[in-house]
Amino acid sequence: MKKALILLGCPESPSQTPMTIYANHKLSELGYDVTVASTPSAAKLLEVSDPEEYYIKNKIDIESSLDGLEPGKYDLLVGFAHKDAAISYFITFYHILQCESIALVFEKDHQLLEEFENMVAENTDAKIVAVRAFHNPTPLRVKFDRVLKEL
Amino acid sequence: MKKALILLGCPESPSQTPMTIYANHKLSELGYDVTVASTPSAAKLLEVSDPEEYYIKNKIDIESSLDGLEPGKYDLLVGFAHKDAAISYFITFYHILQCESIALVFEKDHQLLEEFENMVAENTDAKIVAVRAFHNPTPLRVKFDRVLKEL
User: Fold this and answer.
1) Which of A14, A51, A134 is nearest residue B25 as measured by Cβ atoms?
2) Which end of chain B has the lower number of beta carbons within 10 A, N or C?
3) Are B65 and B41 in contact (CB under 8 A)?
């Protein structure tokens, strides 16, 4: 079974937890065994967001997961990249895993969005889904669905 | 069957969508038939957050739901109150429904939190769950669980 890792570096965006559930659900439908690696705060949001663990089956801590990480451990990396810290995590995981990767870049500020997008583009060959968004998940969802079709 | 209404006036907080799922889940366990009334943006976040509608069974638009609202239509009102607009909605729904009510007030800024709490306290006799929180849902969840035991 193909394995996918969803990476959450920060909890601040109101779209992130909902989009994590959505991405987990879509990737499961595509046949991936999905794991979510996150900071403790982002993990707490996932717990209240899915109290019966109906959607999210595997959760690991982002820091401690770095220890056992190696090329081939996952077939797909999907990272939420909407803060410097989150992008740094994404770049780190990308270079260790060396697998197909998708960065979800979203920000309400145009300039920051471009900055984040450039950071990912300059440091990885990941597919980039970039949208100017904050609390409306639809543009991100639509573009994410589109990039999944290219996998 | 007892009926509960969860009210979402704004989508901005990262805790709101996860806590809505949680509240819906807990109230269902307590035997309530739960409906969520929300702005269109908040509704979109709920949709991606629960793509199979496993948790949220009934969703209505906050504006159009006001038309048919009357005393006795719901037995419990739970409102997220973390912006002026959301608090205005809560106060309006409270006075029309005249049922047992809980306001969930959360803000990272101490002064705003107090201001929001006072707005609710001065205009309603709702139970108030107030916490200084932004992206950590735990304090809100713990206090919400506590107030549910008093119902």
Assistant:
1) A51
2) N
3) no
Q: Which residues in chain A show pLDDT less than 70?
A: none
Threshold 0.80, pTM exceeds: yes
Q: Cβ–Cβ of B21/A50 closer than 8 Å?
A: yes
| pLDDT for res B134 | 77
CB A34 within 8 A of CB A65: no
Best of B49, B59, B142 to substitute, by most chain A Cβ atoms within 10 angstroms, is: B49
Q: What DSSP state is assigned to residue B135?
A: S
Cα–Cα nearest to A104, from A147, A52, A60: A147
Q: In residues, how long is chain B?
A: 151
pLDDT along chain B (151 residues), means of 10: 94 89 98 96 95 97 93 97 92 97 93 95 97 88 96 88
- Is some CB atom of chain B closer than 8 A to the CB atom of A63? no
Minimal Cα–Cα distance from A70 to chain B, Å? 30
CB B132 within 8 A of CB B104: no
CA distance A29 to chain B (A): 12
Cα–Cα distance measured from residue B20 to residue B137, given in angstroms and rounded to the nearest whole number: 11
Residues of B whose CB is below 8 A from A137: 44-45, 48
Count of CB atoms within 10 A of residue B12's CB?
Answer: 13
Strands of the sheet containing A100-107, edge to edge, are A58-61, A33-38, A3-8, A76-80, A100-107, A127-132
How far is residue A48's CA from residue B141's CA, in Å, rounded to a whole number?
8
Gap between the terminal Cα atoms of chain B: 15
